[in-house]
Design a protein that fits this description.
single chain, alpha+beta, about 350 residues, two-stranded antiparallel sheet, 8 strands, 4-stranded antiparallel β-sheet
């Protein structure tokens, strides 16, 4: 029993000695960190070394070091941004230091970090200030700045996404073609509010859907994906996609399986899932599940003519044709106008 208590006593003493030793080391490191940071008491100013010592003291549990470290990091980052106090300008390093300051609990550094990220993202995207162009990295950094609440970064991000998507789709600016990635980036840009990309994005979707449907341009034939993308392009108002969608549905044999489902929106209760050409007194009129076409006039919802005469033919009444109608309803509308 005596030997057991003796062992515990010795272990406790060793623990106390170790704890005291750690505290002494933390105190020493914190003291030196302050001297090196301020260049005091004959010590040459060395901020990176000061931060290293302060970080070690903080990791050992020194309260004052834990408070000082985020402030030191913030000041060091500012010197790196401006290239001052004998510290060489280094933007990537400054961003890394700002991040560490945030991680160490400096809540006030968020604005500085987001601003620096936004500026750096522009330099990378445009290849400015001696930095090589790097679209991917620029978008990644701009996204981080936007997530931190930088309003200008939120404005820039959809622009960056759109421009990079064009490079990927059309193999521009030394960027290798990646159509699926280009589609994803354009879609994100549109969702983030870049409405200027709407038309070009719909053209990308329409073109890519045809390549997938036909198995062209090195892409494996994928009918389901082609129809999905063509639907999306149609919903964005792309005229070619509207025409192509009807052809894809018919040629793939999927038109009959739609039943009353709208081929564009997917809503049920649709009556126009059929295709037919009508030879009328005013010319051929085409009905497809996605449009009604007469001559050069093509509309998604239908055709409405209120003129008394059309191509020299006098109508018996207004010609009102709806894409969302049965064959019988469509023929009845033609008869009411007297063109059939």
């Amino acid at each position: 029993m005596k030997s057991k208590f003796f062992v515990l006593f010795v272990a406790g003493c060793l623990t106390c000695l170790y704890s005291a030793s750690v505290q002494d080391e933390a105190e020493r490191l914190n003291y030196l960190a302050i001297q090196f940071f301020n260049g005091e008491n004959g010590v040459t100013k060395d901020i990176p070394r000061a931060i290293d010592m302060c970080s070690r003291a903080a990791d050992l549990g020194h309260d004052l070091a834990q408070q000082n470290l985020p402030q030191m990091l913030n000041i060091y980052a500012a010197h790196l941004v401006n290239g001052e106090n004998g510290i060489r300008k280094d933007i990537p390093k400054a961003i890394s230091v700002y991040r560490e300051a945030m991680a160490r609990g400096h809540s006030g550094v968020s604005e500085n970090l987001s601003k620096m990220l936004r500026v750096y993202s522009i330099w990378l995207f445009e290849g400015m200030e001696g930095f090589a162009t790097d679209f991917v990295r620029a978008i990644e950094i701009c996204r981080e700045a936007a997530d931190l609440g930088d309003a200008d970064a939120r404005h820039n991000l959809p622009i960056f996404l759109a421009r990079h998507s064009f490079s990927l789709f059309y193999e521009e600016n030394g960027v290798a073609r990646d159509i699926p990635k280009a589609i994803d980036l354009s879609r994100e840009a549109l969702n983030l509010g870049n409405m200027r990309i709407k038309e070009s994005f719909s053209e990308m979707l329409s073109t890519y859907s045809v390549w997938l449907f036909e198995g062209e341009q090195g892409f494996e034939k994928n009918t389901d994906k082609a129809i999905e993308l063509c639907r999306e392009a149609t919903s964005l108002g792309n005229f070619d996609a509207r025409q192509n969608l009807a052809v894809m549905l018919e040629q793939s044999g999927k038109l009959d399986s739609l039943g009353s489902e709208n081929p564009i929106t997917g809503e049920v209760g649709f009556k126009g899932n059929w295709t037919q050409v009508f030879h009328t007194r005013i010319g051929d009129i085409l009905h497809t599940p996605t449009m009604t076409q007469w001559g050069f006039m093509t509309t998604g919802e239908g055709l409405s003519l209120n003129s008394k005469t059309v191509n020299g033919f006098e109508l018996a009444g207004p010609l009102v044709l709806k894409t969302d109608s049965t064959v019988e309803e469509f023929i009845e509308a033609l008869k009411k106008a007297g063109v059939m």
